[in-house]
Amino acid sequence: MAIVSSGSGSAAARGPRQPQRLVDPAAHANEKSSEAAPEAPIQREDSLRPRRLADYIGQRELKQVLGIAVEATRAREEALDHVLLYGPPGLGKTTMALVLAEELGVRCRITSAPALERPRDIVGLLVNLEPRELLFIDEIHRLNRVAEEILYPAMEDFRLDLTVGKGTTARTRSLPIAPFTLVGATTRAGSLTSPLRDRFGLIQRLEFYGLDDLQAIVLRAAGLLQIELDASAALEVARRCRGTPRIANRLLRRVRDVAAVGGHGRVSPELVHEALSLHRVDGRGLDASDRRLLHLLQHGYGGGPVGLDTLAAGLGEDPATLEAVVEPFLLQQGLLQRTPRGRVITEAGLAHLQAHPEPSAA
Ligand code: ADE
User: Fold this and answer.
1) In the annotation, is 246 catalytic?
2) Probe ligand 1: pick from 33, 57, 60, max atoms within 8 Å of CB?
3) Which of 24, 46, 138, 282 is catalytic?
4) Which residues, in sequence order, are CB contacts of 25 under 8 Å at separation 6+?
5) What pTM value is reported for the model?
């Protein structure tokens, strides 16, 4: 599986100086999907990815819809319709693209929109596709206009319209390409232009995972990592991973470290608690950054409302980072509210803060 890689959306929003959080849903640098070259090392997240639909836990509707499409496509011996996957980071969009390729028996080329800066970047990928291969474009909402216009005829008619020459001698040449499947992934479906969105035959949302599915994912990963883990310990990891398998697997590796260093055998729920408390991840998956925000909101501004910029300045964070990385989970959990007059802590947020008093240190 080839890759033309570049930084992820929230990493870009975070800026270069912020450390990566254990509970950040965006992929850490060592978790990005790897290059197709045979000598490329298998990346950490890759080693835990399910390879077939049958191994993919959760996202029932998504699996059902894509399973039917794959079966029908195989029977027709055609390329699968273009697929748009959207939803929060870390829920398995890249994994699903790789699973689809495996099910179809074809290769998947992986890239991301920010890596397709020049027209030749996307043209190079498209002309080199073999029939029925998958092209996965992450963060597809960030595609530039020129790349997007190259994609339209490619998606619709498997054709590239290339301009040859300049000025009055410029002419358009059409070049056929192999029938292929574009799998686009985005955290912001609303930011896609309608002409691009309309060219996807299958548009599917990935949802946060429920506790049962997360527990099963943790147990599966523990098996692959050869960690002996009680089902109740897996549930404790599941409770702390913010509905996100990528975070679950990351937390599990930290638990494994503590178990190994402490010479523990089977991992118990108590050991999970101890290991993740060390990283200041609490029983609900909030980390120190989350609690600092709630603490400042309550004790610095009487619970709000307070503007994003003021809050960010008080925390020494960049407002865009705060909004894109720290706030979404707090909002989703009903611990924080955005109102027209600013951020407000909720009753649940206050209760959480009281149960987890956090000193003002970072
Ligand atoms: N690892 C990460 N996501 C997974 C999923 N949905 N099913 C199984 N294993 C996973």
Assistant:
1) yes
2) 57
3) 138
4) 10, 88, 89, 90, 242, 244, 246, 247
5) 0.87
